[in-house]
Amino acid sequence: TKQKLWGGRFTGKTDPLMHEFNQSLRYDRRMHAADIRGSIAYAKALTKVGILTSEEEQQIVRGLQTVGKEWEDGVFNIQPDDEDIHTANERRLSELIGPLGGKLHTGRSRNDQVATDMRLWLLDEVKDVEAGLKALIRVMVERAEQEKDYLLPGYTHLQRGQPIRWSHLLLSHAFSFHADLQRLQQLIPRVSVLPLGCGALAGNPFVVDREFLAKELGFQSVAENSLYGVGDRDFIVEFMMWASLSMTHISRMAEDLVIYSTAEFGFVTLSDAYSTGSSIMPQKKNPDSLELLRGKSGRVFGNMAGFLMTLKGLPSTYNKDLQEDKEPLFDAVDTISASFKIAEGVVATMEVHADKMRQALTMDVLATDLADYLVRKGVPFRETHHISGRAVALAESRKCQLNDLTLQDYQSLNAKFTDDIHSVFDFEASVERRESIGGTSRKMVERQIAVLRKALEN
Ligand code: ARG
């Protein structure tokens, strides 16, 4: 290597550690197919403005296809000076077709090239992520369909609140994922903006047809400002924000299941396929899958927060800091894809214990229904709430359940109690009364299933 321009105190060569520090091929090789696709489209655009003859275009395209195939077959020969996927592909192209390879980069910069590759790559991945999310929702809907009969206490503050259907709880998580599905679909137009043809920063002096490029590569729109085109990475932040939120939903569901899988609750048992043992305590079956799901939500959020820190304060257009967009994005995509699959497997295979759920239904979770009973007899709710609370206290002092109190006990609390009081102490009747939209009655649970099924069709 020759001495660098800024020689002086330098010995000429890039410091070996700096050389390595600068290299991104180790991870950005994942975008090899996107890089080739972008280059093929760009070669065509150059032909349209007379920079390449169609003979030259064909040679370049064939060369690029060969390079792409080498990556796919795992035989691409990486050279020490291949700095990133863009330089590696161009170096190999020129080896294959000679100096003509050097015409491809006319008017193009790695700045518009890398931004294009990232967007193309992410658009492809989003399709898989979406499929994984839909598969998870589907499994949850199927379980909800089959287990509509199971009742358990619904909790607030982790204290028993009111009886609900197990399916209602499952579907509550599924609706969070449904909103994630919508949000994922809604962020696509902002990823699908073409930077190619922005050049290094000021635009393309050979006046390549960018609308043609967008069409060739399947972009929905063209970046209208070249400085924005090369410098924007908001689409990466937005995807990672999306992933952070969706991982948060996975994490909250995982936490419910961790609690429900304890011996103290015993509502669910994870299948062996998603549990692990202890190296010292032979009896243990730990819900590691759920704990990892919960833990990895922090990791994805960290990717997002970390890259946002990188972005903050950068001057306009391209700065090498932007190379730090890749590892967090790749990791976020890998982590959330795996998480959807694991969550799907856990939900599909866990055992659900309807009997244990039923045992947890103590009569006190009908205290609201008891208050509502008097409301139906014309007593204002604020009074009935108090009366029902006194019934709970009375039962507690007698160490008995609400339905063990006598009619006389109830009548001593309020004269409107009559012997139909016992109709209150029926969990099934309680959930069936919740029949406005969103309630836990059978019909409203079925309605939720129908809504989600419909959403999955698109
Ligand atoms: N590897 C670089 C990246 O990922 C490609 C762009 C390099 N551009 C430049 N002007 N050095 O950001």
Write structural notes for this entry.
- It is a single chain.
- 60% of the residues lie in helices and 5% in strands.
- With 458 residues, the chain is mostly helical.
- A two-stranded antiparallel ribbon has the order 1-2.
- Strand 1 and strand 2 form a beta hairpin.
- Helix 7 (166-191) packs parallel to helix 18 (442-457).
- The structure holds arginine.
- Residues 24, 28, 84, 86, 110-111, 114, 318, 320, 322-323 line the site of arginine.
Which tags fit this structure?
binds arginine, argininosuccinate lyase activity, 6 strands, two-stranded parallel sheet, Argininosuccinate lyase, Fumarase C, Chain A, domain 2, lyase
Unreliable stretches (pLDDT < 50, length at least 5) are 1-7
Largest sheet: 2 strands, antiparallel
**SSE order in H/E notation?**
HHHHHHEEHEHEHHEHHEHHHHHH
Bound molecules: arginine
Give the structural class: mainly alpha
CATH architecture label name of the largest domain: Up-down Bundle
Work out the number of β strands: 6
Name of the CATH superfamily of the largest domain: Fumarase/aspartase (Central domain)
CATH topology of the largest domain: Fumarase C, Chain A, domain 2
Oligomer: single chain
CATH class of the largest domain: Mainly Alpha
Total of domains: 3
- Shape call: elongated
Q: Numbering strands along the chain, what is their spatial order in the largest sheet?
A: 1-2
